[in-house]
UniProtKB/TrEMBL annotation, chain B:
Annotated region (Disordered), positions in chain: 229-250
Function of the protein: Component of the proteasome core, a large protease complex with broad specificity involved in protein degradation.
GO molecular function: threonine-type endopeptidase activity
Subunit structure: The 20S proteasome core is composed of 14 alpha and 14 beta subunits that assemble into four stacked heptameric rings, resulting in a barrel-shaped structure. The two inner rings, each composed of seven catalytic beta subunits, are sandwiched by two outer rings, each composed of seven alpha subunits. The catalytic chamber with the active sites is on the inside of the barrel. Has a gated structure, the ends of the cylinder being occluded by the N-termini of the alpha-subunits. Is capped by the proteasome-associated ATPase, ARC.
Any single Gene Ontology cellular-component annotation: proteasome core complex, alpha-subunit complex
Name the UniProt record assigns to this protein: Proteasome subunit alpha
Keywords attached to this entry: Cytoplasm, Hydrolase, Proteasome
Pathway note: Protein degradation; proteasomal Pup-dependent pathway
Subcellular location: Cytoplasm
Record GO biological process: modification-dependent protein catabolic process; proteasomal protein catabolic process
Activity regulation summary: The formation of the proteasomal ATPase ARC-20S proteasome complex, likely via the docking of the C-termini of ARC into the intersubunit pockets in the alpha-rings, may trigger opening of the gate for substrate entry. Interconversion between the open-gate and close-gate conformations leads to a dynamic regulation of the 20S proteasome proteolysis activity.
Annotated family: Belongs to the peptidase T1A family.
Alphabetized InterPro entries for the sequence: Ntn_hydrolases_N, Proteasome_alpha, Proteasome_alpha-type, Proteasome_asu_bac, Proteasome_sua/b
Amino acid sequence: MSAGTSSFTEFLTSVHPEMLPGHRLPESGAAGHLTPDATTIVALTFPGGVLLAGDRRATQGNVIANRDMEKVFRTDEFSAVAIAGSAGFGIELARLYQVELEHYEKMEGRSLTLEGKANKLAQMVRGNLGLAMQGFVMIPLFVGFDENTAQGRVFSYDAVGGRYEEHRYHSIGSGSVYARGSIKKLYTDDLDETTAIKVALESLYDAADDDSATGGPDLHRKIFPLIDVITEDGHRRIPAEDVARLATEVVEGRAADPDGPTASLS
Amino acid sequence: MSMPFYVAPEQQMKDKADYARKGIARGRSAVVLQYEGGILMVADNMSRTLHKISELYDRIGFAAVGRYPEFENLRLMGVRFADVRGYQYDRRDVSGRQLANIYAQTLGTVFSESLKPWEVEIVVAEVGDTADDDEIYRITFDGSIVDEQGFVAVGGSSDHVGTVLKDRFAADAPLSAALNTATHALARENGEERELEAANLEVAVLERSREHRKFRRIHGRRLTTLIEEGQAAARTASGGGATTEDEANE
């Protein structure tokens, strides 16, 4: 290799192109039914940080393909990504993106800026446009802590690689409309971390309540949403027992009041 | 009629080895040693940005001495290899032994096939789940590879530095004590006795208890504090009697 690239994807393209997602596309026609779909993801910022949460269900048509799927991934010390849509390619994209950020950091001796990370992801999503055209649509939701401005930020994408910065909160996936409505009613600008987690859990509950492709907290099997929090101290996955405790509170709250907390009218 | 120039292979190899040794001896050394929490890597390095110590992968660190562009090349090669391996299989399928072998092969080929050998000496260290699983490999300019136990010094007068290390090394020493041992050894390079300050040192650890990526650089205030703690502990250990080093300091 001559004066080499710091991009893992570019390097892989030159030495092992067959390892890239979407390298071999089906001949023609929609083939989106070949891999399960992953659903609702929510992200919300709070003073000093950002949170990313995902339900655990994957569906194939009307069948539940997986009950404890992982859709939320730590990408580096100050960022995380979650995917909705075609699970097979989405997970691969997340893995590749994780290596991409780490690779750059090791090659260059410093991390990309948060903007740089968000733009790189946009390029990678755009690179999979061929896949999207064949029915394998996967959409990431990217969050990170911006060390320059000391705040959490949220970036959403479309299938062609369009990158949009979202303010305060966002949700993607089939249950996202319900989740977003729920967050909208519960969100305030002064949430602390624990309250933000509760808002995320309430919103995922609402998504699961109305969207059959989103899984709610599974108290019997002890399967709860995955929640990553990023602050100036870096990335942290909320321990399963803490999520279990808060999720159980949410479920118990709904037993008394099925529609959950509401916004004040005054 | 001019005679074809003939040099015996033995002579050729010897010349190359001498050349490489001389080149390496011009620079400062680096040491890698176990401590109670993992593996400590210390290099005598004035630059804050041109590193002699780096992360190769989750559990694997790299330390090098000699010509910067040459070992930087090896470092980038190692990062690429490790990242492809980890992406292709699993993160745990990347090992220090693999990387050490690849470096040994590369350096061996360069040494025997090209006119100018690379003037580098490197260490690949992998922190395991327990101290017994730690691996430290030293690879020299000709591709020789040695599996080291506990500690290793590379660089110009690595024999001398290594001897000092051996006297003081304890695999279960706290970080500040291990750092004190390392700087003490590095300060005695070429038979001289210097005082190494935080600004001269590049320090990193492979921290066993850390999640995911074990490599972490130590600099700034944390480094200064660790150096001071180490010196204080060493003074107490030597029974309050000031050592030569301390006298020079006070």
